[in-house]
Amino acid sequence: MKIDRILGIITVLQRKGKVTMPYLAEKFEVSRRTIARDIEAICSAGIPIVTSQGTDGGIEIMEGFNFDTTVFTRDELQAVFAGLKALESVSAVPASSALSDKLYGKEKVIPLDENIMIDLASFYKDSLSEKINMLKKAAHEKKCVTFHYYYNKGEDDKLIEPVLVVFKWSGWYVFGFCPERNDFRMYKLGRLWDLKITDKSFEQREVPPEKLDFGQHFTDEYMIEAVFEASEKYRLVEEYGPYSFTVREDGRLYTKWGFCGRDNAMDWFLGFGDKVEILGPEDFKKDYIKKLKNALSKYEK
């Protein structure tokens, strides 16, 4: 990643002072031209870099330009490494360890934080990592992808122009433009299979800012009243917090929450089995009872 490399170059210049272009190119395993572009980016960020020619020439931070201590504090670097370690959970590339070794070699001046572990993977880690890598590659090369998608209305074959790989709502998604719908769409990686990168290229489209507000369609306007058994308190706290319900005299928990839609609400309440009683609205309550009766009929037969 370019940001990792730039971080590394700045830190090396702080620690070693003057270094040569070939040294940086070899250390970060890129061409000298790439290092030159990174140096330009660092200068654009407001850090003055001086290059000198000759036997004693090299690259260094301008004399007199001082940081308080280092460009990045220990806590800031720990945060960077924690983020990279989280990405490692869905990648085959050991980014955090590799960057740490490049910056410090065997000296663990900024050791990896062993008190935080972030696992962004799922039960399907191998296939998830492969999907993420393929989508990143396709987005970078501006190539369309195809996949078979499963959703609540059935299943279908899709072709999209991938823009972003997104982690949100405790899951991974690809955000891209669907030519068939002529609009940007989100697709959950766990529901798409047979992913392929095609030879069809696309021009990068301008993404309207409102399309990047991925939660814009999820409004909590559908209100439902219910009472839960006391045994379900931990689940309510996990979902909505410890002040999201009222404890009744009989010990049951009264709630009145908004949901983004009937279908999502129905599936969520059904997950509580006989531990919840729906109070209203009446039409939702009737549909809920109908669902329970349908489930029961499968066993009565």
Identify the notable features of this structure and list them briefly.
301 residues, alpha+beta, 4-stranded antiparallel sheet, 38% helix
Q: What is the helix content?
A: 25-40%
Beginning-to-end CA distance, first to last residue: 59 Å
In the predicted model, the low-confidence regions spanning at least 5 consecutive residues are 106-110
Give the CA-based shape: elongated
Strand content: 25-35%
Which strand order do you get reading across the main beta sheet? 6-5-4-3-7
Q: Sheet bearing the most strands, described?
A: 5 strands, antiparallel
Total number of helices: 9
Rg from C-alpha positions? 27 Å
> What is the chain-wise order of helices and strands?
HHHEEHHHEEEEEEHEEHEH
Give the overall average pLDDT: 83
Structural class based on helices, strands and sheet pairing: alpha+beta
Number of strands: 11
